[in-house]
Write a structure and sequence with these properties.
Elements lengths: L2 E8 L8 E6 L2 E5 L15 E4 L11 E5 L5 H4 L2 H7 L4 E3 L1 H13 L9 E3 L5 E4 L2 E8 L6 E7 L4 E6 L15 H8 L3 E7 L11 H15 L4 E6 L3 H13 L3 E5 L5 H8 L27 E7 L3 H10 L13 E4 L8 H13 L3 E4 L2 H4 L6 H11 L3 E5 L3 H13 L15 E5 L3 E5 L7 E5 L2 E5 L1 H13 L1 E9 L4 E11 L8 H19 L6 H20 L4 E8 L4 E2 L1
Parallel strand pairs: 3-5, 5-6, 6-7, 11-12, 12-18, 13-15, 13-16, 14-15, 16-17, 23-25
Antiparallel strand pairs: 1-2, 1-19, 2-3, 4-21, 8-9, 9-10, 10-11, 19-20, 21-22, 23-24, 25-26
């Protein structure tokens, strides 16, 4: 008999930031550690990771972080987490190569970390708990699901998967392993949810290949293909189709996109040496405009769009797009990049280039659709189903699928980050809402946790209403203002055209100063706060705006700001 608990620090009710925790008799097993990218309103934030700080208190009982595949929404938080939690990490060889590359970039000494490479046959034992893995099919090689074996039964985490059949062993689902797991008592299935509202379409793979082939057949000049560097399966497909059409291949962003470099170096992407072209910078002699050239423009999130815009505007050093080119867009916008994608299309159409946008439906085959999720449930027949990896609507979609297979409402748990599910003897289960403190850590540059709600609110105000500085010199002995009061406005009002507002602000400063310069001692803190409050009130009354108001009061005797 074991005491088993499941909770998520990220990944529920959102797309990204996947991080799940299984607690078996106070032994903690962490499944994935991902990030998500910010939407546009998060000014200056580069990435968002789960608030993992509750784990610091129990780090001695964390047995490891088990990574399922090399996408950033599953491994991106690792460099930040390992600074505070130096616990063992387990991953397949390709995933581990990407992780090591990311850690080196963040100046980690890999010798100080415990990085363990596993494969689908690895069995790891921790006392009365055993961890096994099973291969799954995803858009990146060597993806695995994780099974946690306890005395009472198994918890199975699928991560991202599909059942699309593939000839490459690095992308094949291990059905025999899944069947082995099914013979045991599966207490709970943690299934992905992102594709739960999509209808199965067995012809997607062939339809996509047909569409790409037709673009190649009709292209007169170069073909420029935009791809996400993490979608290695589609990159390989474009390479294979290019070879069939006797094209030469150039990968732009190879140095920047190290995941592609690693894949080529380690043999996960197969490109014959004689088909690969290294482009030289454009000059008078070299235009990189051979008709048999296919350029793969690879990157993360907004990078392919940004590079295409540069190419259209003739700012890129390798490719200048002209009317004879054909653009094949295989990068459906991800959350936060919709505006950039729309702007890129606009720029492309202005250049009169041949454009072929691949339908999002044909590109979304990397996540389990409704029928595939039902198939996984039927294969494993878990007692309970917990939808993970997805927004609430996706989780709700999984619930409907489970109910359609005969599960009751009480056997499917729709959870938020921080909710805990307790399993008693593998038979009964109950939910404790909001038990764990969760949230976001906003990464701005390299520091962790340097951006909090107050900072974000200030950035919003700066973007919306600007900033106002009121600068004055005060002689604390003579108790008077020296020289002129200076008002500096950035993003609020144009000073030269708003004399009356600026003069009124100076009068308010003088009036408030009188009160504080009367007494024996000047209370500098209270003085600054009241100046700020009075000026802010006046500005809001006059303009209905709330710029950040900063009084800079300088004590001339001490010659320092206070």
């Amino acid at each position: 008999m074991s005491e088993i608990r499941f909770f998520a620090l990220g990944g529920l009710g959102e797309n990204g930031k996947n991080m799940y925790v299984i607690d078996v008799d106070k032994q903690y097993f962490i499944l994935d550690a991902g990030l998500k990218y910010p939407t546009q309103e998060l000014y200056g934030v580069d990435e968002i990771i789960p608030n993992f700080r509750m784990l610091i208190n129990i780090k001695d009982r964390i047995k490891g972080i088990f990574l399922t595949h090399a996408h950033e929404d599953h491994i991106g938080a690792l460099p930040h987490i390992l600074r505070d939690l130096n616990v063992p990490v387990y991953a397949t060889p390709f995933t581990m190569e990407v992780v090591k590359d990311s850690l080196k970039e963040k100046s980690f000494d890999l010798e100080t970390l415990t990085l363990n490479t596993i494969d689908k046959n690895t069995i790891i034992r921790f006392g009365n708990v055993k961890i096994t893995f099973f291969s799954t099919t995803h858009s990146i090689p060597e993806s695995v699901g994780v099974a946690i074996h306890t005395m009472d039964g198994l918890i199975v985490y699928t991560s991202d998967f599909t059942f699309v059949q593939n000839g490459d062993p690095k992308y094949q689902t291990d059905f025999s392993k899944i069947n082995e797991i099914a013979q045991k008592n599966v207490i709970a299935l943690l299934t992905e949810s992102l594709g739960s509202t999509l209808v199965q379409d067995g012809g997607i793979h062939d339809a996509l290949t047909h569409k790409i082939n037709s673009v190649y057949a009709n292209a007169e000049g170069r073909i420029i293909v935009s791809l996400f560097s993490s979608d290695l399966q589609k990159i390989q497909r474009i390479i294979d189709i290019s070879l069939i059409h006797h094209k030469k291949i150039a990968i732009i962003g190879r140095r920047a996109q190290r995941i592609v470099d690693i894949a080529i170096e380690k043999g996960y992407l197969k490109i014959p040496e004689d088909a690969l072209v290294n482009l030289k910078f454009i000059d008078e002699k070299n235009k990189n405009d051979a008709n048999n050239l296919v350029c793969l423009v690879t990157g993360n999130r907004h990078e392919p769009f940004f590079m295409l815009q540069r190419m259209c505007k003739k700012q890129d050093r390798l490719i200048h797009i002209n009317a004879n080119d054909t653009i094949l867009l295989m990068t459906a916008p991800v959350p936060g990049t919709e505006k950039m994608a729309a702007r890129t299309l606009d720029v492309l159409y202005r250049s009169e280039v041949h454009i072929s946008v691949i339908d999002k439906r044909l590109l979304s085959s990397a996540h389990a659709t409704a029928e595939e999720i039902k198939m996984m449930m039927n294969l494993l027949r878990p007692k309970y189903v917990i939808p993970t990896i997805g927004e609430y609507r996706h989780q709700y979609g999984v619930k409907n699928l489970a109910i359609g297979l005969g599960y009751s409402e009480k056997e499917v748990f729709l959870l938020d980050n921080g909710d805990s599910v307790y399993f008693n003897d593998g038979k009964d289960a109950y939910v404790s809402k909001s038990e764990i403190k969760t949230g976001d850590i906003l990464i701005d540059g390299t520091a962790v946790g340097d951006v909090n709600d107050y900072v974000m609110r200030d950035r919003e105000l700066l973007a919306a209403d600007g900033v106002l500085l009121v600068i004055a010199n005060i002689d604390p002995k003579l108790k008077k203002i020296l020289g002129d009061i200076e008002v500096v406005s950035k993003g609020f009002v144009y000073v030269n055209e708003n004399h009356s507002i600026i003069e009124d602000i100076k009068l308010i400063f003088e009036k408030t100063s009188e009160k504080y310069l009367k007494g024996k001692y000047i209370n500098w803190n209270e003085y600054k706060v009241e100046v700020k409050d009075e000026i802010s009130k006046y500005i809001y009354t006059e303009t209905r705006r709330k710029p950040i108001t900063i009084p800079v009061i300088i004590s001339t005797e001490l010659n320092k700001e206070v």
